[in-house]
Description:
Organism: Albibacterium bauzanense
Shape: globular
Helix content: 25-40%
Number of helices: 6
Strand order of the largest sheet: 1-2-3-4
Strand content: 5-15%
Structural class: alpha/beta
Number of domains: 1
InterPro entries: NADH_UbQ_OxRdtase-like_20kDa, NADH_UQ_OxRdtase_20Kd_su
Catalytic activity: a quinone + NADH + 5 H(+)(in) = a quinol + NAD(+) + 4 H(+)(out)
Subcellular location: Cell membrane
Amino acid sequence: MTDIKLGAAPPGVEGAGFFATSLDKVIGLARANSLWPLPFATSCCGIEFMATMGADYDLARFGAERPSFSPRQSDMLLVMGTIAKKMAPVLKQVYIQMAEPRWVIAVGACASSGGIFDTYSVLQGIDEIIPVDVYVPGCPPRPEAILDGVMRLQEIVKNESLNRRNTPEYKALLEKYGIHTNNVR
């Protein structure tokens, strides 16, 4: 009986060694199952997020069990609730300080589109100041919807190329929002 070593060709197959998958897929799978959320909650959607972190729904099952309240140690920003225009620069600064690669989920109607607050003081969607990867509808969305948003983001992360963040398209997207890749503070 022959021992099969990791990375060695199976018995009967010629060749030195092989990989069963690409490095992009391995790193994507690791990233998708180890997202560190930064909750930015201002309203009732934050209460639904708390329920999502609780025992009944348990966001930890999806690899996001460590909510961080430090932007520098997070890579998934969950914006929940009404964002006033005075708060917009703070949210943008939090986004800029996050670890790269970083992803954003807009949770609820207020973060996605301003919700019922069509006033001069409320930002009509956070996509006016930062790029958003996943929108979770609802007012407020149920914990199941937030879990679905996280799972949709995991699919995006799994399939994202390692070079995407260095492409001219991605840099142009950040430039559109006034975010320069070299101004991280």
